[in-house]
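To the structural biology subgroup,

Please find below the input and predicted structure for Fiber protein Fb34, which we are adding to the shared reference set this quarter. The sequence is reproduced verbatim from the submission form. If anyone notices a discrepancy with their own records, reply to this email rather than editing the shared folder directly, so we keep one authoritative version.
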Amino acid sequence: MASKLIMISVFVLDLIAFGLAVAAEQRRSTAKVVTDSEMNYNYCVYDSDISTGYGVGAFLFLMASQVLIMVASRCFCCGKALNPSGSRACAVILFIVCWLFFLIAEICLFAGSVRNAYHTKYRTIFGGEDPPSCQTLRKGVFGAGAAFIFFTAIVSQFYYDSYSKARGNSFQPYGGEAGVGMGTYK
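Predicted structure (tokenized):
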């Protein structure tokens, strides 16, 4: 039987990560070209950098959620063999899909946070005809991370449930007997 405490804890961590990723998407940095007071050059001015912090927070909460699920399920590496059944096959597939969605979400959040924190320092001197390129994060990077956080949350819950069902009936080779059963000799 799956532990309700673990499932609720993972859900809360995933929900916080999702909320932070959505907030990061809404608060991406924006830039505008500004001319100095003497009209000698143009430069970029960026607004708040809060979405970088939101993205890193979502990254860490999602990682904590994944670590908790993998520690609770022993990551298929340790422990007794699972019962060969449909639950075990489903758990294996969900394990792989869970890690795939997790990696995509983490890459989106990490890349978005790094790119959002990067501010160009270029400027044009003496009123150049081309304004400086004020690069900002593309729209949708944190949104994609939030979507994959959502997918990871769903798949990890199903994975843990399937794993728990397969673990409930642990596989014991040879009917659980440790040795050869012997009867009395007459």
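Summary notes: Strands lie at 31-35, 41-46, 123-125. The chain has a mean pLDDT of 82.

Regards,
Lab coordination
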